[in-house]
UniProtKB/TrEMBL annotation, chain A:
<dbReference type="GO" id="GO:0034227">
    <property type="term" value="P:tRNA thio-modification"/>
</dbReference>
<keyword id="KW-0819">tRNA processing</keyword>
<dbReference type="InterPro" id="IPR012675">
    <property type="entry name" value="Beta-grasp_dom_sf"/>
</dbReference>
<keyword id="KW-0833">Ubl conjugation pathway</keyword>
<dbReference type="GO" id="GO:0002098">
    <property type="term" value="P:tRNA wobble uridine modification"/>
</dbReference>
<comment type="function">
    <text>Acts as a sulfur carrier required for 2-thiolation of mcm(5)S(2)U at tRNA wobble positions of cytosolic tRNA(Lys), tRNA(Glu) and tRNA(Gln). Serves as sulfur donor in tRNA 2-thiolation reaction by being thiocarboxylated (-COSH) at its C-terminus by the MOCS3 homolog UBA4. The sulfur is then transferred to tRNA to form 2-thiolation of mcm(5)S(2)U. Prior mcm(5) tRNA modification by the elongator complex is required for 2-thiolation. Also acts as a ubiquitin-like protein (UBL) that is covalently conjugated via an isopeptide bond to lysine residues of target proteins such as AHP1.</text>
</comment>
<comment type="similarity">
    <text>Belongs to the URM1 family.</text>
</comment>
<comment type="pathway">
    <text>tRNA modification; 5-methoxycarbonylmethyl-2-thiouridine-tRNA biosynthesis.</text>
</comment>
<dbReference type="InterPro" id="IPR016155">
    <property type="entry name" value="Mopterin_synth/thiamin_S_b"/>
</dbReference>
From TrEMBL, chain B:
<feature type="active site" description="Cysteine persulfide intermediate; for sulfurtransferase activity">
    <location>
        <position position="420"/>
    </location>
</feature>
<feature type="binding site">
    <location>
        <begin position="94"/>
        <end position="98"/>
    </location>
    <ligand>
        <name>ATP</name>
    </ligand>
</feature>
<comment type="similarity">
    <text>In the N-terminal section; belongs to the HesA/MoeB/ThiF family. UBA4 subfamily.</text>
</comment>
<feature type="binding site">
    <location>
        <position position="66"/>
    </location>
    <ligand>
        <name>ATP</name>
    </ligand>
</feature>
<feature type="binding site">
    <location>
        <position position="111"/>
    </location>
    <ligand>
        <name>ATP</name>
    </ligand>
</feature>
<comment type="pathway">
    <text>Cofactor biosynthesis; molybdopterin biosynthesis.</text>
</comment>
<keyword id="KW-0067">ATP-binding</keyword>
<feature type="active site" description="Glycyl thioester intermediate; for adenylyltransferase activity">
    <location>
        <position position="223"/>
    </location>
</feature>
<dbReference type="InterPro" id="IPR028885">
    <property type="entry name" value="MOCS3/Uba4"/>
</dbReference>
């Protein structure tokens, strides 16, 4: 493993829960090698990850069930290593190697 | 100094009920109480004091369904002194796989009465208060303020936001849970209750702090539509009871007053709540992601309900401000089909019987589980999600629409009829088919069967096994 490869991609796991897995091939956990920087050379953030997931991992065309106006849609919680993303800077959080990012749809049934 | 917990006197009297927990903690237990609660009282940390707190406390269970049944059963068993139950529904056979406080013999009975019948049998000591109607913006504050703690066991966001807002204003801790299909969630909010506008991330959040906006209605389905596994919702209801018992027995919910000199009770502060999520997997045994405990943030400065510039008031709620229904709804669907592109279930059936539809395709877009119970003769099952996926792929990569329809049907002008469960997916499907050019430039009819299989059952075949 060369240093260059390590910086080019960030290995992370991405989990979906509360029904969102349906949009991602019904699979709850995905191993993702995320490009370390975006098109402008900026470090990969959660905003970048969300866009990346829509373009590369989503099987279902109903993207509006995941993003709305380029942001995560209302009713989806984003957790960085099991903590609410607002504790981590929300969309601006810079993804670290081996992070676990969880997307959970809030439920209302009962 | 556990025994010194006192509720703070509040000018508006909204926490009056909370006093009940702290008071009366020194009386003797009756023989009946002593026997009945002995096994939980000897658990370290409970003791006689914890038990008396439960006996003196009042819990409101909102919803007597899949969450409310187990939640009420366990707090009743544990000896919570007063248990109020709100629900306007009646017991149906399809409830019983998960709503275990009801019974086959009580189908058709009001759920509150059915559940209280069960609870009295389990433990006759508590006082049970039935509210056989819906919680509304008009009655919510009056009812909720009579209790020490609220359990949100409802099934819709409109009521969830209403409950939370009122709990903020009358200062009650809220134990909230939800479940659908194979997933459940649970969290404790507003505990200890903190006055509205008192902002500091040290304070516990409300429902709106954690879930600022409801999901769009298109992404929400009810247990009736999407299904629910009994143990998933049951587990969440039992966990709600567990949280409620913990809070009440330990007086964790005693309100935080402004400028209390004593800040040395951090262990009592649930300021950073946990959201428990549970995912049940029909394909594997207990797996690594079955339970997860997620750290949520504290109270939000800009929260609509509890934040520093909040304009939310009880008076406003009563007079329709905010409008909860509107807050949780979305613009009407955009699909609009021409009259000739629609046919009622009865008219479709009649035309078929008369031989006016000799040759046509009938596409049923329900999920395969629904389809497996029965379908109109000759129907081809193309589940809606898959259909959308394939349609998107065809649009993106080109190629024939054979992926969706039988090959020989793609080019011919055989009319296509589309039916779904309740009549909305089928309209969208007609639009999609036209987008894909399956109408052959208007030469082929593509028709939506209005109202779906639900209408088929009502208009054509009352014996149809519709779920």
């Amino acid at each position: 493993m060369s240093g260059a490869t390590e910086t080019a991609e960030i290995p992370i796991t991405v989990d979906f829960s509360g029904g969102l897995e349906m949009l991602f091939d019904n699979q709850r956990r995905h191993s993702v090698s995320l490009p370390a920087v975006d098109a402008n050379g900026k470090p990969a953030t959660i905003a970048f990850l969300i866009d990346y997931l829509c373009k590369n991992l989503m099987q279902d065309p109903r993207a509006e069930l995941f993003v709305l106006d380029n942001h995560i849609r209302p009713g989806i919680l984003v957790l960085v290593n099991d903590a609410d993303w607002e504790l981590e800077g929300e969309e601006a959080y810079e993804i670290q190697p081996r992070d676990n990012i969880l997307f959970v749809s809030t439920l209302h049934g009962g | 100094m556990e025994g010194d917990v006192e509720s703070q006197p509040v000018a508006d009297g909204t926490t009056a009920a909370t006093d009940s927990v702290a008071n009366g903690c020194s009386r003797r237990l009756t023989d009946d109480e002593f026997d009945r609660y002995s096994r939980q009282m000897i658990v370290p940390g409970m003791g006689k004091e914890g038990q008396l707190r439960l006996i003196n406390s009042r819990v409101l269970v909102i919803g007597a369904g899949g969450l409310g049944c187990p939640a009420a059963q366990y707090i009743a068993g544990a000896g919570v002194g007063t248990i109020g139950i709100i629900d306007n529904d009646v017991v149906e056979a399809s409830n019983l796989h998960r709503q275990v406080g009801h019974a086959t013999s009580r189908i058709g009975m009001k759920k509150v009465d059915s559940l209280i019948t069960h609870l009295k049998e389990l433990n006759p000591l508590p006082t049970y208060v039935p509210y056989p109607f819906q919680l509304t913006p008009q009655n919510a504050a009056d009812i909720i303020s009579k209790y020490d703690l609220v359990m949100d066991c409802t099934d819709n966001p409109v009521t969830r936001y209403l409950i939370s807002d009122v709990c903020v204003l009358v200062r009650k801790p809220l134990v909230t849970a939800a479940a659908i299909q194979k997933s459940g969630q649970l969290t404790v909010l507003n505990c200890p209750p903190t006055p509205q506008g008192l902002v500091d991330s040290e304070y516990a959040p409300c429902y709106r702090c954690c879930f600022r906006k409801p999901p769009p209605p298109s992404s929400m389905v009810s247990c009736g539509e999407a299904g629910i596994m009994g143990p998933v919702v049951g587990m969440m209801g039992v966990a709600q009871a567990g949280e409620a018992i913990k809070i009440l027995a330990s007086a964790l919910h005693m309100p935080v007053a402004k400028n209390v000199g004593d800040n040395n009770t951090p262990e009592k502060n649930l300021k950073q709540p946990t959201l428990l999520i549970y995912t049940f997997d029909l394909e594997s045994a207990v797996g690594p992601y079955s339970f997860r405990a997620l750290k949520m943030g504290g109270r939000k400065r800009n929260c609509f309900a509890c934040g520093e510039n909040s304009t939310l008031t009880l008076e406003g709620i009563k007079t329709g401000n905010p409008d909860y229904v509107q807050f949780c709804s979305a613009p009407a669907p955009v699909v609009s089909l021409a009259p000739e592109e629609r046919i009622t279930a009865a008219a479709y059936h009649a035309a078929k019987e008369k031989g006016e539809l000799p040759d046509h395709l009938l596409i049923d877009t329900r999920e395969k589980e629904h389809f497996s119970f029965g379908s109109i003769q000759g129907a081809i099952n193309v589940p809606f999600g898959k259909l959308l996926m394939k349609a998107a792929a065809i649009k993106r990569d080109g190629g024939p629409a054979t992926e969706i329809l039988p090959a020989e049907a793609v080019k011919s002008n055989t009319p296509i009829f589309v039916v779904c469960r309740t009549g909305s997916d089928s309209q969208e499907t007609v639009e999609k088919f036209k987008e894909l050019g399956l109408d052959n430039g208007g030469k082929r009819r593509i028709v939506d069967i209005v109202g779906g299989m639900k209408a088929w059952k009502q208009e054509v075949d009352p014996t149809f096994p519709y779920i």
